[in-house]
Specification:
Blueprint (H helix, E strand, L loop, with lengths): L8 E4 L6 E3 L3 H11 L10 H15 L11 H12 L7 H14 L6 E3 L3 H14 L11 E6 L5 H7 L8 E4 H4 L6 H11 L9 E5 L2 H10 L3 E5 L4 H8 L8 E2 L2 H9 L6
Parallel strand pairs: 1-4, 1-6, 4-5, 6-7, 7-8
Antiparallel strand pairs: 2-3
């Protein structure tokens, strides 16, 4: 499997690595709110409000409420209520908007597959069967997803037609831990079912320097960062631990680097 032959497990982050929002959540919240009679004439910045409340909910009630003993639907209801806090909506209207949005975000109406993702996944799917280890089923390379996501991850992957490329997925909600914790990467190794798998035989590909790139490294894995900033900019901010030759602008660039044997470990 070319320059990836050292790995027995390759995992991807989901949001902003394999898929991305079609529209900023706060903006879409306003559009959906209008369907339920919510006026936005006050011109409050729902995009900014969403980001503030997203940060607040993740800090106060981590892993979609698991650490606070609230269920994930209530977690989202509280976030949506906070996003619309200037609108004085009734509980009934908040519940209706919440139910609608939770279902909508399971679909391709809200998401689009990132540039180069499908071609790269097809390449990996093909290459793993060409690898000479595949004669032994226990030695086959496996692909997975590790995502700080709620229980809708598997359904969303199916709806985005990505499930067929992966052997498993693991959400933070299911794992009880979130990236960058070592525990979620360890659980992914167990979930893979690969016998005697070692951390140095694992590669994680993601879009966030701390959550994905450094999280995987701290778990003993190799990692690749897919980011829109230049490698030198990232290195200035995060230090020498960011190896510039492991930073790519998108999955197409990474794909080309692997095919051309330009990537070094």
């Amino acid at each position: 499997m070319s320059s990836l032959s050292r790995f027995r497990l390759i995992t991807f982050a989901m949001t902003d690595t394999l898929i991305k929002f079609r529209t900023a959540p706060g903006k879409l919240y306003g559009e959906i709110g209008a369907l339920f009679g919510v006026s936005n004439n006050e011109n409050h910045d729902l995009v900014a409000k969403f980001k503030i409340n997203w940060h607040h909910m993740n800090t106060t009630h981590p892993i979609f409420g698991q650490k606070s003993n609230i269920d994930e639907k209530e977690w989202w209801r509280l976030l949506i209520k906070g996003t619309f806090d200037h609108h004085n909506l009734s509980d009934e209207k908040i519940n209706n908007v919440t139910n609608y949005l939770l279902d909508l975000y399971k679909t391709s109406s809200c998401w689009v597959v990132t540039f180069g993702a499908v071609d790269f996944l097809k390449y990996l799917d093909t290459q793993k069967f060409l690898d000479n280890r595949t004669h032994d089923s226990e030695q086959q390379i496996k692909l997975g997803v590790i995502s700080n996501f709620d229980s809708r991850l598997e359904v969303l992957m199916k709806n985005m037609k990505l499930s067929e490329y992966f052997d498993f997925s693991l959400s933070s909600y299911e794992a009880g831990f979130e990236k960058p914790s070592r525990e979620i990467f360890t659980k992914a190794m167990r979930r893979s079912g690969i016998k005697d798998l070692k951390p140095y035989e694992c590669l994680h590909i993601g879009n966030t320097p701390i959550t994905d790139y450094l999280g995987a490294r701290n778990a003993g894995w190799s990692s690749i960062l897919v980011h829109d900033k230049m490698p030198n900019q990232l290195k200035e901010k995060y230090g020498e631990i960011i190896e510039t030759h492991h930073v790519y602008n998108n999955l197409l660039d990474l794909h080309r680097s692997i095919v051309d044997h330009r990537i070094k470990w």
